[in-house]
Amino acid sequence: MTIKFYCPNCDAIIAFDSKHSGKRARCITCGQIFIIPQKDDEIPKKIKAEPKPKGDPVPGFYYAVFIKSWKLFFDPQNATSLVFVIAVVCFKFFLAKACCLNYISFVLVWGWLLAFYLNIIYETAFEIDQFPQIQLAASDFLGLTALAWYVIKPFLIFSYTMFIIQLPFIIALALLEGKGVTYENMWQAHTGLHLLLQALFIFDLFLFPMAVLTTAVGKDITLLRPDYILIPVFKTPIPYLIVVALLVTACVLEMQTTQYDGSAFLITARNLAVNLAVQIIAIIAMRSIGLFYRHYSCHFPW
Prior knowledge:
Largest sheet: 3 strands, antiparallel
Order of helices and strands: EEEEEHHHEHHHHHHH
Mean pLDDT: 86
């Protein structure tokens, strides 16, 4: 049976299966954490997500990333989320070549996936070791508007975060444009200026996971300050390199995936399996970002 109720913070309509009563969940509209009630229209109890007190790093980061993350894929409570991930990946895969629908499927799928990733980072950071399972009802205009915003908002968050983190590179490129240096030719030449821009671009990308973590957990754009981003990275370089390596692996593999093109069954099955495997790595990468905060929050200035 489905329980329907309102978010105790923003009044968004929320629906959960009754088997989840008494468990923690998070509103996908405002981020409020609460206890799922036992009946319809019951006011859920709010839970304030607070960072761990400053102290020493929490041990077990590598175990949590490489062992505990895999266990979540076999947890029956995560079945609904995993089925939905499989569904949206298949949706994107089979509509990739469909006229017009490919653009619609791209926006819908990646909007949902990016929102899913942000939710994973946030909930993992605050010790909710389950995949996001909250569902937003869209039976009326307000529900549809909230659902549309749920798809669009992650694009804006990731785009803005990427812009801020690449701002030093953008400024440097603009200053050097008068000397004939452009984004296109900076990868083709090997002068000192070109190499400097290449290094700045790559270094800014290197800091992107930390910036996304700050955006997802801090939920405040003013936290995207150089000291807030750099201090945790320099104090815990090896764990952060693990986070970056996982995210880079997911991105590189995603760029290598092939969508449905009418090939033979075995080739199509292989390509679809690769698309699904990329999502497994992406989920582990997003959990590693949240776990980085959970285990090393003592190094975060904010």
